[in-house]
Prior knowledge:
This protein has nine helices and eleven strands. It is α+β, with helices and mostly antiparallel strands.
Amino acid sequence: MSSLLSGIRETKPTQEILDIFNALKDKVKFRTGEKNKRILLTVDGKRQVFLLAHGYCNFVRQWDRRTVMTLHAPLVVGFGMPTDKESHLHVQAIDVIEYALLPADLFEQYITEFNLWKQLATLATWGLQAHNVYNKALAINDNFKIALLLLNELNHEPEFVRHNTTALAYIQDRTLLSRSWIMHFLAELKNAGHIELQRGILTKINELPIH
Length: 211
């Protein structure tokens, strides 16, 4: 069973992202961020662009602490969104990351200087598609189906993410489902032989039920 974003990940414009990184490598300072580091996309009311060169992060809504999606390096985040949206979002490192943060107006200046608008447009289109696919899939009024979708999504995450995130946390961080409901859901699937868990970590999906 393919994941929600499997097709989107396969079409990720990695070369365009690397073109941007390579052009800006002498203009911006990349730094190390520790696990759980929280990075705001607005600083003193100014929009910021986040460049993720290495590692994984969660894209989080500030008002309810829900994860919008997992970000995989390399990636550029924070351009093209209204300020009122950015002020309610932040990035949180899942592991040690390498990143840069710079004001959006300066980022756009560099994009113009190095003639990278084509690459940026390709990246923006891809990012919008990923966001729409993910939101549409989860905009259903069926808790069981949403939990199944997210469990399958977890199974397709990179090894580091899978081995450092419990199935309970992955689903709870992305939904408004209660902890007790998710625990019952996972126990049912495990007891029926659909999934295998070790200390809460999803180790294998045998076959998810059709619901």
